[in-house]
Amino acid sequence: MEVKRVMREYMNYIDGKWVPSSTGETFKSINPANGEVVAVLAKSSREDVDKAVQAARRAFDKWRLYPAPRRGEILYEVGRILKERKEDLARLMTQEMGKVLTEARGDVQEGIDMAFYVGGEGRRLFGVTTPSEMPNKFQMAVRDPVGVVAAITPWNFPIAIPTWKLMPALVAGNTVVFKPASDTPALGAELVKIFEEAGLPPGVLNLVTGTGEEVGKALLEHPGVDVISFTGSTDTGSQVLAQTASKNKKISLEMGGKNAITVMDDADIDLAIEGILWSAFGTTGQRCTACSRLIVHKSIRDTLTEKLLSRIQNLRLGDGLDPETDVGPVINERQLNKIHQYVGIGREEGAKLLIGGDRATDGELSKGFFYKPTLFTDVDPNMRIAQEEIFGPVLSMITVNSLEEAIKVNNCTKYGLSSSIYTRDINKAFRAMRDFNTGIVYINHGTIGAEVHLPFGGTKGTGNGHREGAVWAALDVFTEWKSVYIDFSGRLQRAQIDIDKINIES
Ligand code: UN1
Predict the structure, then answer these.
(1) What is the pLDDT of residues 201-218, one digit of tens each?
(2) Is residue 288 annotated as part of the catalytic site, yes or no?
(3) How many CB atoms lie within 10 A of CB 489?
(4) What does DSSP say about strands 468-469 and 418-422: parallel, antiparallel, or unpaired?
(5) pTM metric for this prediction
């Protein structure tokens, strides 16, 4: 297999120009499978953020007046180019982020889906009309863009998640400053290049790369930013809230999960095994929606454990560009250490480690950040490994005696993103659908695999009440409702007061 590795360089994109950071400093993005440098990027400062925000503010007045269907057409063009470059982007993604190539293609595809879906919104952006309580009066509510949006995105879906933010924001008439994760900035820059090629006017979308401490913080504090759309860890999300508390910005947070698959005694166990492996070890467990808890009915526990164990044993770790690889590396050393620490915590808490539990260092793997797919059994629902987000290939199995208990266990974390149940009993499926308290519920499917046109997001500690994906829900973050009353009676008509003057003849 030919593996093409080219080192790339990217600058910031501000006001339609590619420019170095104000300090001239750079940083590197690293291939987590082998430590090679993938790209060199601008290490930006507060000054760069300021320039980008100013550019976005200047562009806003024209962009908001550019007809929405035309804005949507630019997104169609973005979709077309993304489609054309799908393979190149996917290969770059595997190198920069580590996920296996088939999954990287899926990530790009999610961006393509968003482009064509949200592009169409340019011809909808529906408002509401409703009759007036007064005669000869018309009224409606329309969606107005908010202004400048700061999009702060994570490394685990380097194309898909930015498109969830940029596309609805832009189609609604906002301008954007985009800060991609510092582990996957090259993909962020490639995405911005595509918007540029698609004909987006200067200043409408700006890219500033760098650290969260510098660039992220400057965006949170900048008075010219109206909306912060953030996806990342719960810790960072809480900091976003704390730092913006007095700043009167619109804040949308998409944070952690502790997602569970429940397997009932009547389930198709082989089907469940497929869903468990895909959800727990796909993307090396690094999805917000990844399954990290397995809730199993006691009567099938032994059969399921045995089957699962033999499948986990056969998972092949390696570079995601190798078609033989099932599980790629984790993103960086810090995450690797965090995962290993949690495995230590699980052991101390008394959970039984069935497989994995260590770094994988055989041969080539020693060059990258590989962790063995790990399964704990005998896990108590209150243990830290069953409560806290690990964001790696670690699955904790909890045994229950009934559906009621499974629902209780499913719901007993501070998060509320995704849950799943495997059962052949329609009554149980509907009960779970009703009683699981997460933002996403799957029946006879794992916890991952959301499609772009349904709301994506979670309850409780997963978010702050907003949704992404489905544009009719996502637009609540990127627009303000404006209620408009048009009185064509030619006289003063006082709502709530002149109601007695209205008669059927008037
Ligand atoms: C994430 O979990 O971080 O639902 C995003 C999915 C993908 C998106 C996941 N479509 O698994």
Answers:
(1) 999 999 999 999 999 999
(2) yes
(3) 12
(4) unpaired
(5) 0.97
